[in-house]
Write a structure and sequence with these properties.
alpha/beta; binds magnesium ion; binds nicotinamide-adenine-dinucleotide; about 375 residues
Length: about 375
């Protein structure tokens, strides 16, 4: 069980909810990091009194240093500063809620420092799953999922992530804001509409990933690494109510699911309290109030990103990393109004087709593929 935390990406949606869990459960917060949000992180630092804070943006870090001059909090800048927070001695657990594959280096740093990892940053496993899992094993580090579906699967597996009797994983998806729409209807869809998620309030990047359903493809890859399953043993089912957070099917065809209200503070808290459970500020689930739960086959033709991810993980090597980087770039360009909604899948596919094959890879190879994917993705 966690006692002291380092929270990477503390100013984001998951980061703020993690701090809320710390308030309720009384965990110590030893380090906080963000990209450039000076005011938010200053507020957090004054409340939680960590030893160190880091901002990736050096100018923002210099501003923060002036603002926190009356405290004895050490202010760091750049990715090196974030990594220093990831290996801070006084924390036993690193909660990584950075968005994007930028979270990979801090995850590896935390593994090398022997920290337990509560992982929200799914891109870490998509881009470098083989490397991350093998280094975690080598250093005896536990990776506990924060992503709600993976927390659900972990809970259904009763703490045995490599359960031999596991036949398949049933990954649920909300379907996002465009469930039931055709590709034609999505051609000119606005950023504003894509940012309106029906059930969850999240950061901008993952909200767009939910609209394209790329998020479910990334989660499929995440599940493959976390639970040592074959990609084809992960079924995806659209479940509009987001009450069943995922399920597992065993050899005897018994299916076990985890249910709860859609609130990330439950999976965040479980990653920290595991194997114990504490009271939660999240409300109780009333099934009779919800009335009915519905399930549908995903529309793979309209939401092409799901199968592009399935293809990438089946091909292995750095194909998933390439797909992830191409998506990071296209997702951002869509949010900036530079490309259309349907262009996202087209760009991901174009990069996947041009990516070279790797059997084994290093951290440097991942960075190279990231650069390659962003250049080709244009
Ligand atoms: P967000 O955009 O709200 O927050 C991201 C955080 O990362 C911020 O603190 C930001 O300052 C920091 N950051 C951004 N770019 C960075 C960089 N290049 N280097 C270092 N730090 C950087 O994102 P979020 O919605 O909180 O999501 C965080 C991660 O958790 C993502 O990987 C997402 O897929 C995953 N996740 C989120 C949710 C959710 O409900 N929001 C649910 C499941 C999984
Ligand atoms: Mg999820």
């Amino acid at each position: 069980m966690t006692e002291n935390l380092s929270i990477l990406g503390s100013t984001g949606s998951i980061g703020k909810q993690s701090l809320d869990v710390c308030r309720k459960c009384g965990y110590g917060v030893k380090a906080l990091t963000a990209f450039s949000s000076v005011e938010e992180i200053e507020k957090q630092a004054r409340e939680f009194k960590p030893e160190k804070v880091a901002l990736v943006d050096e100018k923002a870090a210099a501003d923060l240093k002036i603002k926190l001059a009356d405290t004895d909090i050490k202010v760091l800048g750049g990715m090196d500063g974030v990594c220093e927070c990831a290996e801070i001695q006084s924390a036993d657990t690193v909660l990584n809620s950075v968005v994007g594959m930028a979270g990979l280096k801090p995850t590896l740093t935390a593994i090398y420092a022997g920290k337990k990892i509560a992982l929200a940053n799914k891109e870490t496993l998509v881009a470098g799953g083989q490397l991350v899992m093998s280094e975690a094993k080598k250093h005896g580090v536990e990776i506990l999922p924060v992503d709600s579906e993976h927390s659900a699967i972990f809970q259904c597996l009763q703490g045995k992530p490599t359960n031999k009797a596991l036949k398949k994983i049933i990954l649920t998806a909300s379907g996002g804001p465009f469930f039931g729409k055709t590709a034609d209807e999505l051609r000119d869809v606005t950023v504003e509409k894509a940012l309106k998620h029906p059930n969850w309030s999240m950061g901008a990047k993952i909200t767009i990933d939910s609209a394209t359903m790329m998020n479910k493809g990334l989660e499929l890859i995440e599940a493959v690494w976390l639970f040592s399953v074959k990609p084809d043993d992960v079924d995806i089912v659209v479940h509009r109510e987001s009450i069943v957070h995922s399920a597992v099917e065993y050899d005897d065809n018994s299916v076990i699911a985890q249910l709860g209200l859609p609130d990330m503070r439950i999976p965040i808290q479980y990653a920290l309290t595991y194997p114990e459970r504490f009271e939660s500020p999240v409300g109780e689930l009333s099934l009779s109030q919800i009335g009915k739960l519905t399930f549908f086959e995903p529309d793979y033709e309209t939401f092409r990103c799901i199968n592009l991810c399935r293809k990438a993980i089946n091909m292995g090597g750095l194909y998933p990393a390439a797909v992830n980087s191409a998506n990071e770039q296209a997702n951002l360009m869509f949010r900036q109004g530079k490309i259309g909604f349907l262009d996202i899948a087209d760009r991901v596919e174009a990069v996947l087709e041009k990516t070279p094959h790797y059997d084994n890879y290093t951290f440097e190879d991942i960075l190279e593929i990231d650069k390659f994917a962003r250049e080709i993705g244009g």
